[in-house]
């Protein structure tokens, strides 16, 4: 849904009602869906500067940067809250939400609490505002799924364990709830906020299987407080970040037999041993009926290409960034029209075959703490490529090779 000037409302502007991005598997900032090919997230200046000065060699491994927008909280006549976006460059007068979009928005709306003396927070109860059956996301959701309980209860239990939710990945909804809660409690309702516009890197996939990997042996930025630094050092030491340079921060895998996603969160990833990490990679490539052996080679090729690029980037340190491994849970046909098996078909720049059969992609995301020579608020200038990131990539490639040989 493209924001444009209204032709029938004078100076009024058409806005875009943002939806939670249903395929967010990790992170803590809310990622929102702007349109089918674009997502947005709260702007962090250091991340914006990174995208604006991105080396050409890295552009095929990062989402396309599409600029910025302004977003504000809007309450409808029933008291439901939503986030509405309008381009940053437009004037700041009143605007309205477009009703011309063919897509039915799915966003979480506030279910007002009235009366009572329990002091319940008004964001304690949530529901989906529109029927899931009316949305393009129907393919990914069970038609009888409704969210009418606190989102956090769908993500982890009291012990921090997450059940394998097969119908829907709740992580993005939890992030969205937390973000709206913060906006409601900390900022005026009409205050505008800037968001980054980025490419939706899974828009081409019917059933996007996504593995979110926190890369490197160090996660805190140069500007971290001593308390935050100690917290991140402890997390790395207690997880595979220290010994492998990589840990799992989220995952969703389409199970073709059940037609649901199997989901894991960052708490699951933190507890894994080296062998557990290997088993999780194997699970990520298993669709519930078979192991997708045809994906191993294109994933490794793409990781090797990224490794070559990272080795050539002097002074960059990608602290706290993530790496996404993406493929389509939709099974390719047995052979291409040309007679080649999918894994034999030529690969495009982003790892998908020229006929769209073996769709594999690798993307780096989350650069709020990335530093490099000439970056804004640079605290330290580093020489050479990022050793922790390279260490993680090398180990990831080796584990995938071991899995391939074991199969």
Explain the overall architecture:
- The protein has nine helices and 15 strands.
- By secondary structure, the chain is of the alpha+beta class.
- Helix 8 runs antiparallel to helix 9 (387-406).
- It is globular.
- Residues 1-12, 90-158 and 339-356 have low confidence and may be disordered.
SSE order in H/E notation? EEEEHEEEEEHHEEHHEEHHHEEH
Uncertain runs are: 1-12, 90-158, 339-356
Strand fraction: 15-25%
What's the pLDDT, averaged over the residues? 75
Total of helices: 9
Instruction: Sum up the overall morphology in one term.
Output: globular
Rounded Rg: 22 Å
Q: How are strands sequenced across the largest beta sheet?
A: 2-3-4-10-5-6-1-7
Beta-strand segment tally = 15
Name a few traits of the molecule:
five-stranded antiparallel sheet, 407 residues, eight-stranded mixed sheet, globular
Secondary structure topology:
Layout: E1 13-17, E2 19-20, E3 32-35, E4 38-42, H1 45-52, E5 65-75, E6 81-87, E7 95-97, E8 108-110, E9 126-128, H2 152-155, H3 171-186, E10 192-199, E11 208-215, H4 226-237, H5 240-244, E12 246-255, E13 260-265, H6 266-270, H7 274-284, H8 296-311, E14 322-328, E15 360-365, H9 387-406
Parallel strand pairs: 1-7
Antiparallel strand pairs: 1-6, 2-3, 3-4, 4-10, 5-6, 5-10, 8-9, 11-12, 11-14, 12-13, 14-15
Helix pairs in contact: 8-9
């Amino acid at each position: 849904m493209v924001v444009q000037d209204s032709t029938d409302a004078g100076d009024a502007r058409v806005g875009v009602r943002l939806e939670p991005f249903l395929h967010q598997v990790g992170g803590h900032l809310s990622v929102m869906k702007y349109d089918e090919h674009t997502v947005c997230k709260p702007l962090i200046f250091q991340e914006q500067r990174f995208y604006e000065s991105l080396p050409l060699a890295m552009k095929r491994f990062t989402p396309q940067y599409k600029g910025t927008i302004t977003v504000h909280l809007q309450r409808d006549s029933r008291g439901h809250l939503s986030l509405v976006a309008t381009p940053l460059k437009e004037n700041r007068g009143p605007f309205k939400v477009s009703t011309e979009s063919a897509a039915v928005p799915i966003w979480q709306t506030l279910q007002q609490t009235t009366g009572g003396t329990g002091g319940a927070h008004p964001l304690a109860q949530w529901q989906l505002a529109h029927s899931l059956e009316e949305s393009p996301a129907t393919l990914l959701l069970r038609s009888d799924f409704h969210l009418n309980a606190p989102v956090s209860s769908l993500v982890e239990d009291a012990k921090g364990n997450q059940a394998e939710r097969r119908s829907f990945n709740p992580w993005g909804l939890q992030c969205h709830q937390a973000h709206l809660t913060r906006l409601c409690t900390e900022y005026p309702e009409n205050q505008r906020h800037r968001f980054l516009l980025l490419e939706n890197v899974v828009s081409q996939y019917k059933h996007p299987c996504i593995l979110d990997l926190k890369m490197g042996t160090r996660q805190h930025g140069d500007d971290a407080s001593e308390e935050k630094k100690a917290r991140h050092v402890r997390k790395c030491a207690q997880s595979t970040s220290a010994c492998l340079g990589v840990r799992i921060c989220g995952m969703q895998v389409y199970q073709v037999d059940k037609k649901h996603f199997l989901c894991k969160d960052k708490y699951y990833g933190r507890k894994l041993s080296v062998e557990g990490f290997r088993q999780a990679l194997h699970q990520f490539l298993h669709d519930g009926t078979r192991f997708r052996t045809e994906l191993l080679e294109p994933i490794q090729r793409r990781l090797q290409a990224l490794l070559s690029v990272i080795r050539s980037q002097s002074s960059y340190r990608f602290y706290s960034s993530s790496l996404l491994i993406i493929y389509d849970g939709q099974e390719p046909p047995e052979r291409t029209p040309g007679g080649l098996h999918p894994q034999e078909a030529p690969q495009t720049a982003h790892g998908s075959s020229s006929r769209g059969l073996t769709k594999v992609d690798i993307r780096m995301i989350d650069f709020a703490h990335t530093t490099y020579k000439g970056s804004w608020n640079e605290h330290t200038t580093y020489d050479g490529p990022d050793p922790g990131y390279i260490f993680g990539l090398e180990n990831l490639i080796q584990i995938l090779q071991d899995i391939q040989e074991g199969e």
